[in-house]
Fold each of these.
Amino acid sequence: MRSHGALSLSPLHDMPERQETDFVCIKDSNVLIYLIHGITGAPVEMSSLSRKLSRENGWDVNATTLPGHGTNLPELARTTEQDWRAHVQRQLSFIRDRYEYVFAVGLGAGALLALEASTVVRIDGLGALSPTFIHNGWNTPWAQAPGRKSYHARGMVRGRLNDWCARRKGVNSATPPPPSAATKASPAISLGTLTAIDRLIMRVLPRLHDVTTPTIILQSRKDDMTNPRNSSIVYNAISSQDRLLIVLDDCFHVVSVENQQEAVAGHMAPFFRLHMKAEFSPQQMKVSS
């Protein structure tokens, strides 16, 4: 586990299912931002956003490692959506008892896990980054799926992510690198894992109306994995009085590490800060950035 601050003395010290690959920043805050990477992804997808939210706002952050991730493809294939759901809800329940304010942010299918968790655990605000219900992005190679043992549509996205991680190693040599498993996303996805994602989608989609937590949704206009229609599905289906949809330009699916990562943090922090106040005016907005 990579951490900044004294984790052994923090409220997260005894958190269930902690992993060495988790990315944690401790600022002795009463605010915790819980970040969930995408399926087949890695905590590094959320590390840059974690740093920005913690450094610029003084908040504690925890980017979790989902079960089966940071290992290998067979290990990932042995986990299901039930494992991912239980992991997120268990950790958020633990955090809820220890922080005054708790916010959950998910990327891709991680956004679905965050949305569902908000109906089980009281959360003060949600961030849904590139929420994924329909794989209909412009770069999705549908022809590769049938009859194959693994599906490589996400491989292109993960390849860009791994390239970004490699470049980052030379950018800031003063910052110790995270465990290697935390930076390696799977270049492929088994059909079993695809089926688990489908089951997750079929569980969360008809229950979106149960979500009442204030929610900010961010997605790229040119998302290569899942087009902005997915964000509109979330925006139109949830029952949150306060919801905000922002469409970003000049980036692709993994908005937390691409060209608009500063904008992602810049939009998210004020939205969360607003919901730390006793009173606020509900807003329902769609904007472009």
Note: The chain has eight helices and eleven strands.
Amino acid sequence: MRHYKDHPFSFNRTWDEYVNGFMEDEYRVWIGLETLHQITKHTPHQVLVFMVYMQYNADTMWGFEAEYTDFKVGNRSTHYTITYSSYIPRTSNSLGDTLNGLNGSSFSTYDRDNDGDDNRSCALQYAGGWWFNGLNGCSTNSITSFFTCPTQNCGPMAIKKFPGHQYLYQYDKVVAVMLFLKTEQ
């Protein structure tokens, strides 16, 4: 669903762009909310979240995985709400429950605020569209805290808060991929 490579580009896109999908190049792709709905509407899917990043000023690569069962994306009238049954850590260095608190959340963009918080817009705060839960502190412990930029102008390196830690790390060369795997019948 999201795929990053080398340096970031802006995911601060309009609602229509997120609904229809967009592609800057073969590495920077969002397949579209309507496509996600069509893929998952009849048969629940497992979604595998895989992320690799290289820490700034280091030769160390890190990889993380997480899996969700019975993953579905609702239709336009639900604002493409996501639902899933369970989280399964895939590796000892798991991402953790990156969608924690987002089950049942609607998708939000800067021009379509569906996060449930009337006092702020999580999509504006994180400069990108996602399934935000504004009543859960914009769910900054989610996967969005790795990839979105808390300002409008991020360069090839951004400072990110690592889940569960009070200090900051710097990353460059981030790769993240979400893949759908058909649920076993």
Note: DSSP finds four helices and ten strands in the chain.
Amino acid sequence: MWSFARSAVRAHRASFVGSFLIVVAAAALLSANGVLMESGLRGDAPLLTTIAGSFAGTAVLVVVLVVASTFASALRQRSEQFALLRAVGATPAQVRRMVTAEVALVFAYAAPLGAVPGLFAAHLLTPSLESGGIVPEGLTLVVTPLPAVGALLLLFPTALLAARLAARKVTTVSPTAAVRGSSAEPAGLTGARRVWALVLLFSGIAQAGMPFVMPGTVGSAAGATSAFLLISAAAVAGPALVSTAARRAVSASRSSRHAATLLALLNSRGFSRRLTTAIVPLALFLALGTVQTGVNGSMVDAAQVQLRAGLSADAVLISPDGVSAAQASDVASAPGTEAVLASSMVPAEVRVDPADEVGDLAWEQAGLRAVSGSVPELFDVGVTAGSLDDLAGPGTIAVSGESLFATGKGVGDTVDLRFDDGTALSPTIVAVYDRGLGFGDYLLDAATLPEDAPVDTLFVRGQADLSGLTGLAGAQVLTVDEYVTEAVDGAASQQELGTILLFVLILFVAVAAANTLVMLTSARRPELALLRRIGTTRRQLTSMITVESVFVMVSALVLGTLSVIPALVSVSYGMVGGFAPAVDWPVYGALAAAVVLIAVVAMVLPARLASRGRA
């Protein structure tokens, strides 16, 4: 069996090259992210663990979909070979074992080529990790075989299941039926496929409605995943959707005298499963980039809205080097000053899981805003329970509602904190508020801290002249609008790692989409050769493939756009309370242009090469 599998892979290397490259890229991506997660756990960098874990959720979903689609495409092209094997006496079990051996053979070579470099490629992110404050300077990323093993354990079963499902058509019917059906694609969907498509569709709609029930970042994050569920639903129901769209396009073009156009649309109608595997990766590429950039932009916009609405100051004095007590006293006593609030940002860890068995996983990195002065007068954080007046008491803390989600805690309960020096505190919650994106998830009186923290910001209400203080090294006096803009820009810069990881994931999907299109088009060499023999010119073939590429790109743009609209509307509502889709239009335009470019180049060029030569 293994000898036969090696011969099959060698004979059909053109179709396996694409699968090989995707496995290499997928293994590298997952193993690199695994290094980040493991380093965060072993190196006491919980923020790194949080970011890598959040990215892993999206990456695993995307990688599984792409790997499954790629192997299904590669194996589906060989339906005739499998049918012939059945006709000459091969049993369904033998065909399945052969498919298993071929997939295992590809993984035996491809997985190490991707996973091992991926382990070391994670080190390229170290400068971004340190500059963003995600890890302390000097932290060395931990490299062990575990991420590579984890990537293999995820990818191999995924590819094997997809390959077996692709070969299922010829292993569940009689040999004669397998031969008859190998050259044609069924237009309809099986009952199980219809059920799965409906389940995914309604699950996506339900997820999109989460922010209307649970506003904020938690609900918005849940709503954003609806795009991937809807894309998955379209992938399952794709053959029926593509066939219907192509059928209507054929009806609309019956009067056309352009034979290549009609032939292209008839091909699209007759081979809807083949086109689905080409359309879905492109739609996923568009949806992934649009949703992720929309979510990031909405978070920044929401933080800006909350901060501007909640600040009652007239001026803000900021000093990275710290504001001394004497300087703060001068500001408070300056003529025209009505109220002053001193603020410090203090790094700490918060217990998010009461179970001791999980160790450091029970703690999450957080930034505490330590305040002193006129808190209720200058900060309107949207209190929903308790009162900020009680924050002046010893051992108290105010907490955002989102940070308490699913904890069951409220006013009167305690929050476990621990600081870099090992000191632990358990202050009592005296207020719960809504504007956590703008003001942070935790507010406490500076006197509650185990040791004094340098004041970096003074919020001042009144018309006091603070110009005399601007001579301090690094000190600035800003208006509220200037401070909000600077604070939001600083928060956006901290998303650098997330942006890099997103770019890598989008690039992976783009390569997968282009690879799938090239693989599918190259596999049509016999079809194109037959058309050449019956008199079709190369120009007509190029026109036919160009029309097919237009059909693919339009379908991908429509599918990708429709799948993200519910997610972006729900994210916009959850973050800022509006219904306008949270779309980063320049990014969407660039992604749409990339879809067009990939579809044309990856289909037309291979077709021209495949049709080269005399008829």
Note: The mean pLDDT is 81.
